[in-house]
Amino acid sequence: MTSQPFDIAVIGAGMAGSSAAAFLSASKRVALIEAEDIAGYHTTGRSAAIWIQNYGPPDVRELTRLSRPFYESPPTGFSDIPLIRRRPVLMLASESQLPDLDAALAGGHGLRTLSIHEAGALVPALRPGYLAGAAIEEDAFDMDVAAIHQGFLRMLRTNGGVLALRSRTGRIERRGDLWHIETTAGAAFQAPILVNAAGAWGDQIATLAAAAPLGLRPCRRTAAIIDPTPFDVANWPMIIDVNEEWYARPEARTRLMVSPADETLTHPHDVQPEEIDVATGIDRMQQALDIPVRRVEHSWAGLRTFTPDGSLGFGWDANIPGFFWCVGQGGYGIQTAPAAGRFVADLVLGRDAGEAAPVIQAVAPGRFQTDSLSSGNLIA
Question: Which domains are seen in the chain, by residue range?
């Protein structure tokens, strides 16, 4: 088995790995190694993403904020179509949830209260008597996940990087200063630096590389498509329960996507929706919105993988030289992708992380590891 030499090997071609590989490939020869037939099959390809500033822990919110300029004005040639479309986010609260709404307003950025009448004008399907308070984030926007993902893969290829599909990692071994990665398809790669962007499989990749797992938590998230007739939902905002017990957003202009916002702990696999989760999401939605649901047109599930404390896991392993973690994106991987990819590249290559530097300690994987040996960057 002949190994192909690279400066950096990135395992996992979802949004996290693709964005990191794209920025790394500007100055290094990068291999992006993916187990499936298509990149982004398990999580990225199942995301219906919206950019929301007020979503996630502080480190996520900072990288979300830093990603906005990229989405508004992507590099020339990144995509042939616009990446974003304005879509406000409407937050709903029942009487018992008013304290939670007050807390969201106090800790949020760019949120303002709406009257019940104003909320009803935006979403005419609101049930009379349900709503006690509302808030809106007006500068949120839909994101074209496929266009963004393909844009990063295009960046990688333009820079001379290699995308290796159908290359499930079977063995990882460090010999001297090089990682040797063998795949079940027979391909082999070698590089001094290995970036673990394997999502739900991140701890498995770490184990293959003799690194201690971080304790990643893959969770199932379910969504369903319904016909919202008689309502025209094309210009509705995204609707979120203030405690994120459900949400809904327009899909393909004439349909509504509904989710129970479930986070059911599971294991890394090709996750499928459970009927009870679909039914739960629709029931919660119908408590607030008077929309008859005659049938579910389509349902799916994806994996959202979190670190033990819910923040991101970006940085060098505390004990294994040349092993870099890029995991724990949870449900935030799309909205943070441009800033996160650049941030990972900066850390791997030993550069100043600029405006993202304040989050370095918050996302360092060493917070989950008992030892504190510095792996360092080998090729910057």
Answer: 4-63+145-214+309-368 (3.50.50.60), 89-138+217-306 (3.30.9.10)
